[in-house]
């Protein structure tokens, strides 16, 4: 961190990137990054600074955390030239959002809506309006949940994964498109294993879970499912 801050101070101006998330214990926190332009090479450099726990996510609390971080790093807030957040009103609001509060101190701190978040929203809305794409995403989410929510089913499935470097099934994230890609890819990489598992499980288990597995198997065998999975992977 010390070397990063030294370099940022040498470049004078910097931008802040902040996003809200929660950890595995469901504690609210923010991720904080700094971006600067090297004054010699003019190359953009971005640095992850850390995670910071926050009791609330209102703009006032986030602004106090921001000031505290910059104070600890000994960075002058008047050298902020950019702010990059998502579209939530607590950070992007033009009157009381975090970006507005920062601009009250440094008007030259230009706010930019995070392009990754924008692309994520566009992709989500597009998928919702394409029936087959929407259906395949829902199917993949339900299939992965069906296997991973049961230790017995997950263990059974893992026994069918014979290769040492085989891809594990990734949880399907409902909000982040970058994580959706890894989830969809894990299904494609395990397509044959999934077919075998669902076939064996549906024949062995004479209960609701077995019936559900049979339904998953029928859909997974469909050429439409395979083709749409290929298409959405290329999109994400």
UniProtKB/TrEMBL annotation:
Domain DUF4371: 2-96
Protein name: Zinc finger MYM-type protein 1
Classification via Pfam families: DUF4371 (PF14291)
Species assigned in the record: Schizaphis graminum
Residues annotated as signal peptide: none
Matching InterPro entries: DUF4371, RNaseH-like_sf
Coiled-coil regions, chain positions: none
Gene name of the encoded protein: ZMYM1_121
């Amino acid at each position: 961190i010390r070397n990063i801050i030294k370099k940022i101070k040498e470049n004078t101006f910097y931008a802040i990137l902040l996003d809200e998330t929660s950890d595995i214990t469901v504690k609210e926190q923010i991720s904080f990054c700094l971006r600067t332009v090297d004054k010699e090479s003019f190359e953009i450099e971005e640095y992850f600074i850390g995670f910071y726990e926050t009791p609330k996510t209102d703009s006032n609390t986030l602004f106090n955390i921001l000031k505290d971080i910059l104070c600890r790093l000994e960075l002058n807030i008047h050298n902020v030239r950019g702010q990059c957040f998502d579209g939530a009103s607590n950070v992007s609001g033009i009157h009381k959002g975090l970006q507005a509060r920062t601009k009250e101190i440094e008007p030259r701190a230009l706010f930019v809506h995070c392009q990754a978040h924008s692309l994520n929203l566009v992709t989500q809305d597009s998928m919702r309006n394409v029936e087959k794409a929407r259906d395949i995403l829902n199917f993949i989410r339900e299939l992965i949940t069906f296997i991973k929510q049961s230790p017995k089913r997950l263990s059974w499935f893992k026994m069918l994964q014979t290769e040492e470097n085989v891809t594990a099934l990734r949880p399907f994230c409902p909000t982040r498109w970058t994580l959706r890609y890894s989830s969809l890819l894990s299904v494609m990489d395990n397509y044959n294993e999934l077919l075998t598992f669902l076939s064996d499980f549906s024949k062995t288990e004479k209960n609701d879970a077995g019936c559900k597995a049979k339904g998953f198997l029928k859909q997974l065998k469909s050429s439409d499912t395979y083709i749409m999975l290929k298409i959405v992977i290329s999109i994400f």
